[in-house]
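Sequence in, structure out. Go.
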Amino acid sequence: MRISEMKEALSGLSAVSFRLPDGTQLPAHFHVTEVGLVSKHFIDCGGVERRETVANFQLWEAGDYDHRLAPQKFLHILQLSEKVLGREDLDIEVEYQQATIGKFGLAFDGTDFLLTAKHTACLAQDACGIPAEPLFALPQLQIAGCTPGGGCC
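Output:
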């Protein structure tokens, strides 16, 4: 989700709620404690120099159980964050404390903001010798007469 998409979603809400990838709803008394610009400058395993920049939101909860972040207040926080983020329509990454700090992508289902799982990946698979597609799919092996436990593999 990009910043513009979040602003659009917030403008139509009466309350803000987030859900974890497993469907668990974050407590309604969460806070947005940081909005930041995270830039990553790196070299992948194939030697290609890369840069990534995202807007990072940190969600946090305390013992102030009556706290509620209204959509208009969240929009105001986003407006204030333009001092740091600029006006670029960046992708959003969300940090939320679990056993350790979890990093999530963000989506919206029309009612809730969804924290989505992020995964690692090799960005230079061709340089690592990783095939783009498996050499044989299981149905192809069965057609060739190879079955699990059949001794052909």
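Check: The longest strand covers residues 30-43. The mean pLDDT is 89.
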